[in-house]
Amino acid sequence: MSAVLRLLSRRLGISLIVLVGVSMLIFGIARVIPGDPARIALGPNATEEQVANLREALHLNDPVVVQYGYFVADLLQGDLGVSLYTNRPVTLDIAQFLPATLELVLFAGVLMVGIGLPLGMWSARYRGRWPDHLIRVVSLLGVSAPSFVWAVILMLLFAFFLPIFPIAGRITDSFEITRVTGFLLVDTLLAGNGAAFADALWHIFLPAFALAVSGIGQAARLTRANMVETYDRPYVEMAQAYGFSARRIAAKYAFKPSLIPSLTIIGLDFAAMLGNAFLVEAVFAWPGLSRYGVAVILRKDLNAIIGTVLIISATFLIVNLIVDLLIAFLNPRIRHSERGAS
Amino acid sequence: MSDVLEVRDLCLRFRGYSGMSEVLHGISLNVRAGERVALVGESGSGKSVTARIVLGLLQELPSAQVEGGLFFEGEDLNRLSRRQWQALRGTSISMIFQDPTSSLNPVFTIGTQFAEVLRRRDPKLSREAADERAGTLLQSVSIHDHARVLGAYPFQLSGGMNQRVVIAMALANHPSLLIADEPGTALDVTVQAQTLKLMHELVERSGTAVLFISHNLGVVREFADRVFVIYRGRIVEQGPTPAIFEDPGHAYTRALMAAVPRITGGGLPELNDSESAFLDPMVVHEGGKA
Questions:
Q1: Rounded to two decimals, what is the model's pTM?
Q2: A339 pLDDT more than 50
Q3: Residue of chain B whose Cα is closest to the Cα of A234
């Protein structure tokens, strides 16, 4: 397993470098947004002196490099500064809003993998026949529209015209759930409240599905393409010659070798859902990081902007790392190679 | 002796964009119990498709149209349901492919794949019992560190090692017919010779009938009791191996034999791709037709 450990440490190192790069980039960009953050925070009635004091407190009069130094020094102590918008530490704000977004994205990821991979598998098993054609049309449709369009369409169809699902929110307000993880699906279960869990599930389904639609299409198309290629391999013919059932061949012998190349792209798609989640959250009034993110950008709340972007980037990198490990786990060539992954 | 396999007047057509094209024009052959029969011909002559028809694999292609009698141990294969035919594969009929390394699945260990093969005969076989049986079978193909091999992935083993594994798998369920489609062609000559010798010994000991598909006359001469020569979807000559090699009757068989480069030199033989004499009627040697 040392090859996997080597892979892990190398990827962690690279992730750290990427995070430093992102922090510099966003630090610079945030300061280019027009407007004086101190003036915006204090409002039009504040005196020039008050504004100057705040600018001094925020180190805004120092060169950008020095400001970055202050930022890194704070960051190393786990401090992302105070948000000028909420007047609370940014870490506290993110801890409050991030779980809702993560829950949405993770649930969408489960839908993407849980629906997309089997669809692709069926499609490949029945390649050239009608189930294949049907699945290909549906997945092309899924890929063709961005997730916020799906959010609006699904909301109109299944929350408005056919009121099966709720229009907005994470849970019906009458339920009182103690926050433990911030993931309502987990917290309701921890509280042993089945009705609240069902309610939270009912709320999350439509936005998560809207977020997942294009990922489902993409996963299905990729899995199909890779599996159709695998079906031409001698080892699949051998499995057929040994009388294994078509179903078993599809689910095992052809699926597993095909999963490895698909997984990288599926991981990227999954991470991309973090970005798309902002728009879907806006449509479904999901109380996640998006509302916070948009509000702080409009107010040029420097600390909060950087904090939000950094957290999203870190999540993105963690997802990629997990996918890489998963591939290493599935692919014996990486797991057993002497020199680690290339 | 009774026939394990009889193929009677087999035709194969493919539906293509330019209409139907016939690939096999009514070939007949038979393999008796415990007998080793070679089907010899050049690439594209229809050797491999014949093997896949016997297994019932080609019939599942929507573009293929298969006609003719297929009998396995006296049973009419064409009357079997797909499920019944499938039940024969991997149990009573098994197959060895050209390239052992690419015919093993790259993401499962040999042990896992071996267990799956053994479970074709014995679905409730536990993994421990399967590993034990696989170990014994691997010993019979002269693999002595079977624990390591069972835990390995195909890419970690040499081609010759994989070939032994594939031979052990093919004979694991005591099939009455083994179809060997150019086994070991992808290996180098010495390894191919070793593994073929091994296979020869094993099928002789177990009395397994073999349909041996090859273009390699040297190998065929060593291995087969009887030979069918196939050219462009027709059997052009058939008979006992010694008879055919001593007195090739058909122009194509003679050309095929002349095509083998001599170790004594003389350059590569000159050959025509086709000649009208290649389409002459079939030559049958004494004792060839059952």
A1: 0.82
A2: no
A3: B103
